[in-house]
Amino acid sequence: MINILIADDHKMFVDGIESILRLEPDMKVVGRCYDGSSVEEAVIRLKADILLLDVNLPGMNGIEVCKKLSTTAKHVKIIAISMFNEESYVTEILSNGASGYILKNTGREELIKAIKTVDSGLSYFSEEVKHTIMKGLMKNNEKKEQKSKFFPKVSKREKEVLALIIDEHTTQEIASKLYISLKTVESHRSSLLNKLNVRNSAGLVRVAMENNLLAE
Amino acid sequence: MINILIADDHKMFVDGIESILRLEPDMKVVGRCYDGSSVEEAVIRLKADILLLDVNLPGMNGIEVCKKLSTTAKHVKIIAISMFNEESYVTEILSNGASGYILKNTGREELIKAIKTVDSGLSYFSEEVKHTIMKGLMKNNEKKEQKSKFFPKVSKREKEVLALIIDEHTTQEIASKLYISLKTVESHRSSLLNKLNVRNSAGLVRVAMENNLLAE
DNA sequence: CAATTTTTGAGGGTAATCCCTGATATTAGA
DNA sequence: TCTAATATCAGGGATTACCCTCAAAAATTG
């Protein structure tokens, strides 16, 4: 028997899910929550196996709830439910412990399949959600291009120096590692400060990491 | 008519694709490339609409090719093909301009569907690929948890100082902004260096950004 | 091959960081 | 309530980073 807890503030929707699951002999809805802050307690008290969790929940949103449960109630498996197919929601809640993500227009069969899949230890995502994520992946391209136009290209040697600065090395150490003079390293560092338009090494590290300058 | 160029160094595989596509009245294989460096020229000369691009290509790999084409031949739509379902390959090539990703065990129907879908301006990914990506998303969770246990908590005031360091402010500026003495800021900075176990401000920025210390 | 960019290097100086050893209120947790 | 952590501040010194100007090989690119 799979014990299911539903956390959603839309009563009609909860009723709908419950009427669907009533027909399943091996599933049982053991409770409902209408706000985020009561979820944790309910999960533990009712020994829920599966939590159907609305992402946009009043009080404490789904992502917060997820984060909390991943430390206080690791056993429960979470399927996130959302009205909208928002990329940011999906990535955020998945990296905070949810095992599945489905949309509210999901039909009866898919809901049951999702629950069974997740209960067995696998993950489940609806087609639309998968597609959204894949599209999101491709957008990185555009972003990268836009950003990289704002500051001129950083040369190969400068990248080497930058990498060592990020790695907490002093100018002297960098000079030794690259077999060049201290003054040369200072020169590179100075160019980097200019190119990336920052005031100090802290800024270099920040900009480099924000823009993945060392990736390519 | 859809003009298709195939770039793959496995001759048998190319033959297979070509024999499949020969039966399609509205598709035509206009050329083949057996290494990465010749792809760009061929795409332009043969006016290819679709490029079936092997990720692991000799000479210049698929990702490099993709990156190049996104500036020199924007019109061509790229479907990446790979033997393996490697998350890193998928994300990398997708964020460099590919419109689709399929595996080499793809059947006839799926291949044709992929080509038609991408040609119409949409993107296409095989089920296995989608699943790999989604699983990868969830892994972020584990990484985050592991890291955050290694260093002790950073106090509220220390976070304020840290934020200003990341924002490229000097100790004197931070002191003025927080209405405290320069020595106090130095004290906080020193504590941060100890707690985060780094040698200098560059390290502070790196660790802070890697672990999202300012988020909470 | 010419022009540009990159990489290399120097001198000399100012400003900022980092380290050490202290100390005293304030605050939060057990 | 008592203890531990936090936030505040100081002197002094060593090291490092940052700024300026300048310049000459070396590599890339047209």
Structure description:
The structure is a homodimer of 216-residue chains. Chain A folds into 2 domains: 135 residues, 3-Layer(aba) Sandwich (Rossmann fold), CATH 3.40.50; 55 residues, Winged helix-like DNA-binding domain superfamily/Winged helix DNA-binding domain (Arc Repressor Mutant, subunit A, Orthogonal Bundle), CATH 1.10.10.10. Helices cover 53% and strands 14% of the residues of chain A. In chain A, helix 7 crosses helix 9 and helix 8 crosses helix 9. The radius of gyration of chain A is 25 Å and the shape is elongated. The termini of chain A are far apart. The relative contact order of chain A is 0.09. The model of chain A has no long low-confidence stretch (mean pLDDT 85). Chains A and B meet through helix 4, helix 6 and helix 10 of A and helix 4, helix 6 and helix 10 of B. The first copy, chain A, binds a DNA duplex (30 and 30 nucleotides) through helix 7 and helix 9.
